[in-house]
Design goal:
Blueprint (H helix, E strand, L loop, with lengths): L2 H16 L7 E6 L5 E5 L11 H16 L7 E3 L20 E3 H9 L4 H18 L6 H15 L24 H13 L1 H7 L3 E6 L2 E6 L10 E9 L3 E16 L5 E13 L4 H21 L7 H4 L7
Antiparallel strand pairs: 1-2, 1-9, 3-4, 5-6, 7-8, 8-9
Helix pairs in contact: 2-4, 3-4, 4-5
C-alpha cells in the first residue's frame, strides 16, 4: 500500500470511529422487504442530511392525517410568521397569513423541496397535536419532537432532527446517517399516502389563487421502477439522494408445489455525492445484482446483526 493509500485508510477509520461527518461519500443499499444490506460505505457516520429531513416531515404529516381521519386536500393551513426566520428561496411566494391546503404544501415540500411549505405543515399539524394533548407549546417544535419520536421508534439511534426542512440554521444543525435514513425510507415507502406524493414526476398546485407547476427534484422519478423518494443539498451536507425502486415479484415454486411471490424493493440512500443521480443508478444496478445472487444462493444469513437492517412494522 502506498503512503497516500495508508493515510486514506487511517482517515476513513478515524471518521467511522468517531462518528464525525467527513468529506467522503456515504451510502447504504438495502432490499426493503427482507432488510438485506447489499452495499454500504460510511453508513454509520453522522452528518447533515439536508432536505432528506423532509422524508420524516412527510411521514409524520401523512400518518397524522390517517390517525385523525383528515383529508389533506381539504385541510387548509395558514402560512405562519415563523417562515420569515427560515430564509432562502420562496418559489411559491408564500407570505404569512396565506392559506394553502396541506396536500399542496406536501407536494411543494416533497417534490419541490420547499422549506417554507415544510414549516407551514409543521406549524399546522404541530398546533393540532399540541391542542389534542392539552399542551401549549411552540407548534413547530412539537412537530419536530414527533419526528424525533418516530426516529426513536424506528431505531434511528444516530439521528437528531431540529427542524422540519433540513436547513442548517443557528442552533438547528441536525444530523443522521445513511443507515438511519435507509430505515426511515423503508418505513416511509410502506405508507401508501406518503409513497403517492413522492412518486409524482410533476404536480400543479394553487396558492392564493395562483397556479404553480412543481417538478420533482429527483431526476430519477419516471425511470423504470423508480418510485421516489427525496433529494437534499446544502453546503455542509453536499448533494444527497434517497431513492426507492421496485421490480416485479419473484414467483417461485414452494416444496409443496404451490406458487409463492416474493416482493422486491431496493432502497438507496446516498450522502455527499457530486453525481448523486449517476451514482444512485450504479448502486441500484450493483444492488440488484447482489440481491439476485443472494436469492439464487438460498438467501442465507450468517450474521443477522451485520447483514439485516431492522425496521419495525407498525
Amino acid at each position: 500500500m502506498t503512503i497516500q493509500g495508508l493515510k486514506h485508510g487511517i482517515l476513513l477509520f478515524l471518521g467511522c470511529l468517531t462518528g464525525v461527518a467527513s468529506a467522503q461519500e456515504a451510502y447504504m443499499v438495502v432490499e426493503a422487504h427482507s432488510g438485506k444490506v447489499l452495499l454500504a460505505q460510511n453508513s454509520q457516520v453522522k452528518r447533515p442530511v439536508a432536505s432528506l429531513t423532509k422524508i420524516c416531515t412527510g411521514v409524520v404529516a401523512t400518518d397524522w392525517a390517517l390517525a385523525t381521519n383528515q383529508d389533506l386536500k381539504k385541510v387548509m393551513a395558514t402560512v405562519p410568521e415563523s417562515i420569515m426566520r427560515v430564509g432562502g428561496a420562496n418559489p411559491l411566494h408564500l407570505q404569512p397569513g396565506q392559506q394553502i391546503s396541506l396536500s399542496d404544501a406536501l407536494y411543494a415540500a416533497l417534490l419541490g423541496s420547499d422549506n417554507l411549505a415544510a414549516m407551514t405543515i409543521a406549524d399546522h399539524i404541530g398546533r393540532d397535536m399540541s391542542n389534542r394533548r392539552g399542551k401549549q407549546e411552540d407548534p413547530v417544535w412539537h412537530f419536530v419532537r414527533e419526528m424525533n419520536e418516530l426516529a426513536r421508534t424506528l431505531g434511528m439511534k444516530s439521528t437528531r432532527f431540529l427542524n422540519p426542512h433540513g436547513l442548517e440554521l443557528h442552533k438547528q444543525e441536525g444530523y443522521s446517517t445513511a443507515a438511519d435514513m435507509a430505515k426511515l425510507s423503508i418505513y416511509a415507502m410502506r405508507r401508501p399516502a406518503f409513497a403517492f406524493f413522492v412518486r409524482q414526476k410533476s404536480r400543479s398546485i394553487t396558492v392564493a389563487g395562483k397556479s404553480y407547476q412543481l417538478t420533482n427534484t429527483n431526476q430519477l422519478v419516471g425511470e423504470a421502477g423508480i418510485l421516489g423518494i427525496k433529494t437534499g443539498q446544502t453546503t455542509p451536507s453536499g448533494p444527497c439522494l434517497a431513492t426507492s425502486m421496485e421490480k416485479d415479484p419473484l414467483i417461485r415454486t414452494k416444496p409443496d408445489g404451490t406458487k409463492g411471490a416474493t416482493p422486491r424493493r431496493m432502497i438507496v440512500v446516498l450522502l455527499n455525492s457530486p453525481d448523486r443521480f449517476g451514482r444512485t443508478r450504479s448502486l441500484l444496478h450493483s444492488g440488484w445484482l447482489g440481491y439476485d445472487q443472494w436469492i439464487t444462493e438460498g438467501a442465507l444469513i450468517q450474521d443477522r446483526n451485520r447483514e439485516i437492517l431492522p425496521v419495525p412494522k407498525f
